[in-house]
Amino acid sequence: MTEYDPRLVAPTCLYLASKVEESTVQARLLVFYIKKMCASDEKYRFEIKDILEMEMKLLEALDYYLVVYHPYRPLLQLLQDAGITDLTQFAWGLVNDTYKMDLILIHPPYMIALACIYIASVLKDKDTTLWFEELRVDMNVVKNISMEVLDFYDTYKIDPQRGLPEDKISPVMNKLPAKA
């Protein structure tokens, strides 16, 4: 994709993503708002046909594979399996926040779900050690993903529990080993 203008590729990705997620944004509206926001910059003067042509190039680059797996389904299944459905809302919020990072592009959805369950269980003082052992999942990966999530919160000073003092986040960070 380096041979194409990223100022055209980026809005085309948004356009295609909106179609994939069945929340379609019309190409003409996308072009309208780009022109409105970047009126003084000639580099952003794209027409609808430019977006639609780039969409086909993106589809070809993706080999027309548009199936997207999200961590939400495995999250619900794993919480139910662990018998800790009371953590659903909190863990769901953590999963939502992972979309602000590149984790979804790097790790399988079930591993992100497990990391969010791990963080939620530690913050809510639920002992899930035996359950994680029964899963026979690589806890180093789960902990590394957890560290990335917690690093995100720490970097942006975001409180995952809305109102939770920052001194509650530190104990979780201290329980996790450094990234392997």
From TrEMBL:
Segments forming domain Cyclin-like: 73-151
Family annotation (InterPro entries): Cyclin-like_dom, Cyclin/Ssn8, Cyclin_N
Single GO biological process annotation from the record: regulation of transcription by RNA polymerase II
CDD domains: CYCLIN_AtCycC_rpt2
Segments crossing the lipid bilayer: none
A GO molecular-function descriptor: cyclin-dependent protein serine/threonine kinase regulator activity
Tagged with keyword Ribonucleoprotein: no
Alphabetic keyword roster: Cyclin
Family membership noted in the UniProt record: Belongs to the cyclin family.
Protein name: Cyclin-like domain-containing protein
UniProt source species: Zizania palustris
